[in-house]
Every structure is written in C-alpha cells, then in structure tokens.
C-alpha cells in the first residue's frame, strides 16, 4: 500500500457526491462535514464514478413501518446509514445503523447479501443484539467519498447480548470501492481479552441474505425446473467446475447438489466464491489463499442441509430479529405475514487448526475454540474479501481468478480497480 503521512491521517474527512478524492494518498482533505440527506434527495442526484453519502431515513429490506414501539433498536438515529453508490451499477453497499452497520450489498428490489463480522468464539459476543447496535459499539466513518475511490472504515466491539461493559474484541474493517462496482473488504481484529477463549474469533465470514418486506424465497431466487425448489446459496470453486448448491422448497425442504467431499474440496481450493444467486443479480464474496485464507485452515460449512458435515441443520433458517431491531440474534423466527424484513442463511466460513475439520458442530467447534494457537493466529492476521454483483457464473470466476492471481498484491486497495 502507498504510505500515508501522519498529517494526512489527522485531517478531518467527509463525503460528498461531488467531492473529488485522490485514490492513492490517503483520506481526502475536507473541513466541513456534509449533513445527512433523505433518500428522496439522494434519488435526485447523479452519481459520477463512485460515491459515499450519509442518509437519515433508511431501513433495510424496504421496511417503512415505525421503529417504535418495536423491540429495542439502535440508539441515536436507527435510520442512519452510509451508502456507497456507483454510476451505471444498480447495486449499492449499505452500512445501516439498525443492522449494526454490518454492510449489506443490496439490489434495487431490497434483497441483499450480508457477510457478517468477527463473531466472538462460542457465540459469546456479536453485534446483532441490542447492545451491539449501540453507536458506541459499532460505528462507521467515510475516509474517502469518491469519485475515483470510496473508503469507508467500520469499527465495532463484539459484545455480550446482555452486558456490553466488557467487550470481547474490537474489529476494524476497511471497505474500498471503485467505479467498476467492486468492493475490497479488509478485515482484522484485536482481542480485548487476550487470555480468554471468548476474546477471539474463528469465524470472520458468513453468508446471509436479507429479504425485503412481503417477499418470499420464491420471489427472490430462480426456480429449479425439475425439482420445483429454489437455488438460494452456492459455494463456487474458482479454479475448477466444482460447485455446491443449496435449494430451498416452499414446504421447508432443503436439498443440496454436491456432497461433503465437494464442499471440502472447494474449501481447500486456491480460491472460492460464496454466492447469493438472486434473480436480479448474483451477489458474491470471493476469498482465497492469496487473500489470507490458507486451505489448511479454511472450512466452509453448510448450516442449511440437515446432516451436512459440521452444520447446524437449520433447514430454511428465517429470522426477523434484524435488521429491524429485535432483541438478539437467537430470538425471533420469521413467521408468515411478518411486517418486517428478515434474514436467512447460511453457509459459514470457519478457521480450524491446521489439518483439522469441524465434523460435528456441537462437539468440534467448541473444542477448536479452545486452541489458543489458532485464536492468536486469527488475531495476528489480516483478511481480504472481494465483494460484487455479476450477471453470470463465468463473470465471478473471471473476476476472482484475476484478483487472486495478483498474489500478495490482493492486499492493495487498487488491486480491484482494473478488474
């Protein structure tokens, strides 16, 4: 990365649709912070290149109802959001306060892909709870507002759902977006309880979806002509024709195309993509060896399909606990007719001790969390994930291989600029 002077890092920075920012010298200089605008005002503006802007009236999944008297929600303004928008691209990246600022790669219909965050070991601490949504525990800053590059920094403290007085870890994630519609996600964390197992995370990436209010799975995903169910999740090997597909039926049935060995092989590939194959676009997250995910420590786990190796067997897991203010992430299952947008998933990415595998989630995951060598390894690393939207599967493979083929340069923000 290009070196940055201390003076540049101390300059107050802000965003604006028309504010030019250098793509190589660090945060853009600015001395006045633009005020948040409404979505209506935003829709009247033209985007040049790529831009980041703050809005004051956003809610995920096209939710328009009141946030009070709902269950507890984000403090200050729960409708605050920072949005990254592109010229000529329909998708947008949204950091929504009500969703703990966990970024949502969102399509115009309101459907979105979420890749979660550094969740504390053993489920001890996270952000999708009332404590985690507080501004003091999760906040975002626009360091560059465009138009050649956007840089948004997300800082968060993974906290217990009942008590946030002792955060377990501090996550720091940088998001770099270029005019081509792609986003580089740079992830790292620091343990705030370095002697405790719960002060670490072995799960930095998990594939969840967001469904807009009133929409069912059949409205969002392509239907399989033979079986009549819907393709909802895919793990794609970027270097072979391997893929692992998960299908959901309207009757709650889950099936997969691919077996445990297929998913294990994709986990060990030099590069893979986790994909939400929405009808509007394929939303993807690409990761690989060159971006900090070595095959010997990387495992993808299917939590949907009953009996899948290492999975929780959720089936068609639907929850309306977030992004609209439910108490915590284990509380509220979605029910037909719910007035809220809802989340669903998932395929999880886990780090495991070298050469080991999670075969039983209930037994192996807690055991591996006790491995302090693994924990300290995750805390000492920086991980990189490429996010975007594609029209077809070949486009994902092409982009992923071109990026990972740059080797160590994957870590440089402009590694995605020419893809």
State the gist of this model.
The chain is of the alpha+beta class. The protein is 12% helix and 29% strand. The chain has 2 domains: 202 residues, no CATH class; 183 residues, no CATH class.
Q: Which overall shape is indicated by the principal axes computed on the Cα atoms?
A: globular
Major sheet characteristics? 10 strands, antiparallel
Oligomer: single chain
Alpha plus pi helix count: 7
Helix fraction bin = 10-25%
How would you describe the overall organization of this protein?
The chain has 419 residues and is an alpha+beta fold. The protein folds into 2 domains: 6-189 and 399-416, no CATH class; 209-391, no CATH class. The protein is 12% helix and 29% strand. The protein contains 7 helices and 19 strands. The protein has a 10-stranded antiparallel beta sheet, sandwiched between helices. The chain is globular. Residues 1-23 have low confidence and may be disordered.
Keywords:
419 residues, alpha+beta, ten-stranded antiparallel β-sheet, globular, disordered N terminus
SSE layout and pairing:
Elements: H1 6-10, H2 39-43, E1 50-55, E2 81-86, E3 92-96, E4 104-106, E5 112-114, E6 138-145, E7 150-158, E8 169-177, E9 183-191, E10 205-211, H3 217-220, E11 230-237, E12 243-248, E13 254-257, H4 260-267, E14 271-277, E15 282-288, E16 298-302, E17 317-319, E18 342-351, H5 361-369, H6 372-379, E19 383-390, H7 393-404
Antiparallel strand pairs: 1-2, 2-3, 3-4, 4-5, 5-10, 6-7, 7-8, 8-9, 9-19, 10-18, 11-12, 11-14, 12-13, 14-15, 15-19, 16-18, 17-18
